[in-house]
TrEMBL record:
It holds the Pfam family Glyoxalase. This is VOC family protein. InterPro entries: Anthracycline_SecMetBiosynth (IPR052164), Glyas_Bleomycin-R_OHBP_Dase (IPR029068), Glyas_Fos-R_dOase_dom (IPR004360), VOC_core (IPR037523). It comes from Streptomyces cavernicola. CDD domains: SgaA_N_like (cd07247).
Length: 260
């Protein structure tokens, strides 16, 4: 398995009240199969596979007060050094870097507005075995209110090259890894400004996207499985997307490529 450059999304997991219910929902929605972890370091962690390749995981919430969410993890060769940079740039380290057996080292952090993201220093498990293909992760973006606070944070912490989309003004900014020319062709994620169309109480957060072959069909299937839609299918320059809330409250997006 190939490694991931620092700052590149390398894994996602959902923190759920009921992992077995999550396996039923996502197994039917994305045709994922699951393998339960018996590792004492990981706890009960259901690894999801698409076509036999690792794509995500479902984990039980350890505390009922924790949000039901999809988390994105960014690769790093040194989680401890990255945690120090996060603090130095005004972020918070929510959980300190912790080794997970031979698999890698994990931590959770928050940006200056409170959006939570993960860090993963890969060991025997670098991260995704499938991405950018149907039924796997393809994109993430952070929803923020203060670009003057958030953009410098991520660009200093990960060394991203940032580029505002020409047709979106400063509403949307893409981020490209170190060594890549900034722009949509090399972007691995981005920042979207929270505007008046969003609820005032909505906190800063990351949205995880999964690639699908038919956005409308997946949206309809999510409803049949007990989920709901936060945003009905609509067209964007990069395809057709919808924002889905699963049957336990975790939010994610699906994106159909324009060619599809």
């Amino acid at each position: 398995m190939a490694g991931f450059a620092e700052g590149v999304p390398c894994w996602v997991d959902a923190q759920l009240p009921d992992v077995e219910a999550g396996k039923r929902f996502y197994g039917a929605l994305f045709d994922w199969t699951f393998e339960d972890s018996t590792s004492p370091e990981q706890g009960r962690y259901a690894q999801a596979y698409s076509e036999g390749r690792a794509v995500a995981a479902l984990a039980p919430k350890r505390d009922g007060r924790m949000p039901t969410v999809w988390n994105v993890y960014f690769a790093t060769p040194d989680a401890y050094a990255l945690a120090r940079r996060i603090r130095a740039e005004g972020g918070q380290v929510v959980t300190e870097p912790t080794p997970v057996g031979p698999f890698g080292t994990v931590a959770l952090a928050a940006d200056p507005e409170g959006a939570v993201f993960g860090l993963w220093q890969g060991g025997t498990r670098p991260g995704f075995e499938k991405r950018g293909e149907p039924d796997s992760f393809c994109w993430t973006e952070v929803y923020s209110r203060d670009k003057a606070l958030v953009d410098p944070f991520y660009e200093a912490v990960f060394g991203y090259g940032g580029a505002d989309l020409a047709d979106a003004g400063d509403q949307f900014r893409t981020w490209s890894p170190v060594g890549s020319p900034p722009g949509p062709d090399t972007a691995i994620g981005g920042r979207s400004l929270v505007t008046g169309q969003f609820p005032a109480e909505m906190p800063a957060h990351f949205l995880v996207y999964f690639n699908v072959t038919d956005c409308d069909a997946v949206a309809a299937a999510a409803r049949r499985l007990g989920g709901r839609l936060r945003a009905e299918p609509f067209d964007i320059p990069y395809g057709r997307m919808a924002v889905v809330v699963d049957d336990q409250g975790a939010v994610f997006a699906v994106l159909q490529d324009p060619e599809a």
